[in-house]
Amino acid sequence: MDCCVIVFSSTHSAMRAEKHLTGRFPVTVMPTPRAVSASCGISLRFPPGDAAGVRAAMEELPGERGCWEIYRLAPDGKADPIVPT
Fold first, then answer.
1. How many helical (H) and strand (E) elements, i.e. helices and strands, does the chain have?
2. Which domain of life is it from (predicted)?
3. Measured by CB atoms within 10 angstroms of the end CB, which terminus of the chain is less buried, N or C?
4. H or E stretch at 55
């Protein structure tokens, strides 16, 4: 599976982000993948092509800075953080 996930430090942050992103991007709630250890356990999955737009939309969400990270999941299950450029 080649996709990206946003992981969160709290369930509250995950729920706010889902509400903020739904309708703008094709996000799906999922359990946090095992390859990503630090998280509240809930993640949002989305296509890799939307990573820049999702990051920009998350930056707009007040009060959530530092509460989330974006990872790209490779087909082999490895997770690599997507660092802003």
1. 2, 5
2. Bacteria
3. C
4. helix 51-60
Q: What are phi and psi of 45, to 5 degrees?
A: -100, 145
Q: Which two tokens stand for residue 47?
A: 């296509």
Domain boundaries, the chain: 3-81
d(CA 85, CA 82): 9
Q: What is the pLDDT of residues 1-46, one digit of tens each?
A: 689 999 999 999 999 999 999 999 999 999 998 888 767 889 999 9
**Contact (CB, 8 A) for 42 and 14:** yes
Q: Would you identify the CATH topology of the domain 3-81?
A: Alpha-Beta Plaits (3.30.70)
Q: How far is CA 59 from CA 21, 32, 37, 67, 81, in A?
A: 11, 21, 23, 11, 16
**What single string gives the DSSP state of each residue in 23-51?**
TTB--EEEEPPTT--SS-SEEEEE-GGGH
> What is the Cα–Cα distance from 11 to 74, expressed in whole angstroms?
25
Q: Per the structure block, which two tokens stand in for 9?
A: 């430090």
